[in-house]
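User: For my dataset I need records formatted as: sequence, then structure tokens, nothing else. Please produce one.
Assistant:
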Amino acid sequence: MEINGVAHIFITAGDFQRAREFYAKLLPFLGMRIVSDTPTLFYGVGGRTGFGIEAPPESERGKRFVQGTVGLHHVCFRARSNADVDEAYNFLVGIGTHIVHGPQLDPYAPGYYSILFEDPDGTRLEINHVPGQGLFAPDTKIGGVYGEENKA
């Protein structure tokens, strides 16, 4: 079996209304169509991806995301070009998003280009572009991981 991508990701927002306002801008910018918008659920679909937020139970309201604790670390959306990453960065700055790092090359794969930012609850989000075959390119070794042709 080989999976056909990730069908959807849901996160729980500590401040659902603020998160909903943020994602109501971000998801359509990313080409997603909003298919559910209720008092407790906001969900968009596009690019073979679904992304949604849910309101928290009363006991979790107001809490913020803490990267590095058990569970989600971050979500990364794949862009089609470095120019798309740059465009996303400008969009995010324009809507007042907390930027962790602007457009930069990273060592995760050849040509890996990304931005890192946070939603209103502090959930880390990334948009990246990796040209060509990325880690599957022949003779690629990044962090101990080899491209497909080098696997034993």
